[in-house]
Amino acid sequence: MSSEFEGTPLEDTEMTEIGLVSRPSDRPVTAEERRRMRAEYGRVRTYFKLHPSRYAGIQRSLNQARIGATYDEYLARSLWFALFGGLLGAVFGVFLTALLVQFGVLSDLRSPIQFSGGLARYIEANRSLFAGVAITSVLTGLVGAGIWFGRYYYPASVVTSRRQAIDVTLPHAIVYMYALSYGGQDLLSVLRDIADAEEVYGEVANEFEMVVNDIDLFGSDMYSALQSARNLTPSDRFEGFLDDMLGVLDAGGDVTTFFESEAESYLRAAEEEQSDFLETLAIMAEVFVVGFVAAPLFLVVTMVVISLIGGSTISAMSSLIYLVLPVGMLAFLVFIDVLSAPFETPSTTTPPEPTEELPFDHENLDEDQRYGSYQSRARRLAFREMFSDPAATFKDEPVNTLFLTVPLAVLAVAGAILGGLVEPSIAAFSSDPVSTTGWLVVAPFLLVAVPLSVFVEMRAARQKAITERFPDTLNILASANKMGIPLPDALELISRYQTGPVAQELRSVKNDIAWNHDVSRALISFGARLKTPQLSRSMKLLADGLRSSGDLARVLSIAAEDARDRARIERARRRELTAYIAVVVIGFLVYLMVIVILDASYLRPIATLDTGGTGQDLPLSFENIPVDLYRMLFLHSALIQAIGSGLLAGKLAENDALAGLKYAIGLVVLTMVVFILV
């Protein structure tokens, strides 16, 4: 429902160098206007509407996040959600208070500050009531404030995510636009094609879709539509790109040449930014070694020494090993993941184009004997395909192995307990830490991690082989096309003399072209099968480039150069960070060596030391040191270090924590072997 107040009463319009924009201002509002606004929008929305300049930032964030709401509507809804959440917090506070009273927890409360007087005696006599009010008030405030601030800053977080996605995908999108423009398409057709490629180019496609909608739905000209997109985009890079494009259009320049130069420029910028990012990751690797290897080792040794002079450090060491180390390592991995987000290629892939369905008569289908024979044959073929490669689902999605290995690990633990091999108790862990930990912790971990790591590495090896060899394959196809060899014949020629996954996929592409006579659709289906975002984009570029251009060789060369540039960036990351894998692993080995020496050469002799008759002459007390408990803590700390160091190594080198499972498995096995031997 439209209104005379919607968007206009408190906005002033001014001219800038790029066109007309609306700037909110808090101009005076008459009592009659205020009354009419309250009647139409309510008091809450009216309050927000009367202070537009205060919330101009959130309105811009809502627009850039593509959240279809005005700031006053969004904030009013957020306020009601916060009030409802606060009410739920209050109910939970009352329930928690009743529970604490039932268990007698609140009756033992004492004020840390002593007061005197009638009020103090009244509060002491009703301590449960006042404690319940305090608990309820805190929960109400925390839940309500959490919901309010969460929704208040949610649009900004969406804008940040969209900005990162646009910045990463923009170089690919420019290459795609260059290929289409080189084929002879006009600029509007190029923008339409990239706006329709949301599955491949993500948020960049959404930005250009806004341009196309301005032209098609609102009748704007190209220049005005690009200006509007430039003003609204959350990405500074995309804004700069549109500024340059507007300059080229204003000067009547060649758009194709502009796209070519911009693609090279943005690719060089991406390489420079990744170089700086790799230096940051190198620093993070050193911080990890200092903060999670050297510092815990120093604290462990210090606590052992303190225990020798009569101090009790078991609880502090347990908190360090079982709480601080795991939570800290997990937080560090999350931090590295957030730090890497702007440099990750969004996982968008091109879905295969649907095939054209032939007319089919469904009447009297069940009466046709041939249909029953067809169904039986289809079921046999499905079973044959499933049993010919039962691990296919694990190769595509290695995480699916957890559905099989986690129950097996639980059964293994249950079998070990029921078979009497191990006892699940603190006493058993303390008296025989190696055997108990091996059966209850290490064995289940290996049952889950080894299959998962195997299939992760198989998928990574396949993707790496395709990614590294594909640019050369495209160059060969381009050279063959220049010599007059048709694309299907060139594909057959290459697949005949190559091996590995690339050759297999090229044979499938060649057969698809031969059967369906549609080169573009075959390439799109090829990109969908690869399940690799970079190569899916290359196939989209190649397929649409072939539709718009008869110069197949040039389009193939453009796609090859784009794929080669991205592969070079990935190789540079692996090469630069390989040395820091060694830093992390060596740091763990130092930790393991010190822990083993402390256990074998220090605590064990203490355990066998007889202080009878001479204990009064020793400067230190060895009688109350729980040596077995310390040995258990040492072993568990080394295992936690092994898993954390391995996952971090994979995250640094390959930007995938699961890729670090192979390091974690090796370090865990090494730790168990060392503790068994010593």
Low-confidence stretches: 1-24, 354-358
| Main β-sheet, spatial strand arrangement | 1-2
Shape designation: globular
Tell me the fraction of residues in β-strands, as a range: under 5%
| Radius of gyration over all CA atoms, rounded | 33 Å
Mean pLDDT: 79
Query: Which sheet architecture does the biggest sheet show?
Result: 2 strands, antiparallel
Distance between the termini: 79 Å
Number of strands: 2
User: How much helicity do the residues have?
Assistant: over 70%
Helix run count: 23
Q: What is the H/E order?
A: EEHHHHHHHHHHHHHHHHHHHHHHH
Structure class: mainly alpha
Question: What can you tell me about this protein's structure?
Answer:
With 678 residues, the protein is mainly alpha-helical. Among the domains are: 11-159, no CATH class; 162-270. It is 76% helix and 2% strand. The chain has helices at 31-49, 56-64, 71-102, 118-125, 127-182, 187-195, 198-218, 222-232, 236-251, 255-308, 314-340, 369-388, 392-396, 402-418, 426-431, 433-482, 487-497, 501-516, 519-530, 533-548, 552-607, 627-654, 661-677, and strands at 11-16, 19-24. A two-stranded antiparallel sheet has the order 1-2. Helix 7 crosses helix 8 (222-232) and helix 16 (433-482) packs across helix 17. It is globular and about 85 Å long. The chain starts with 10 loop residues before the first strand and ends with a helix. Mean pLDDT is 79; it is low at 1-24 and 354-358.
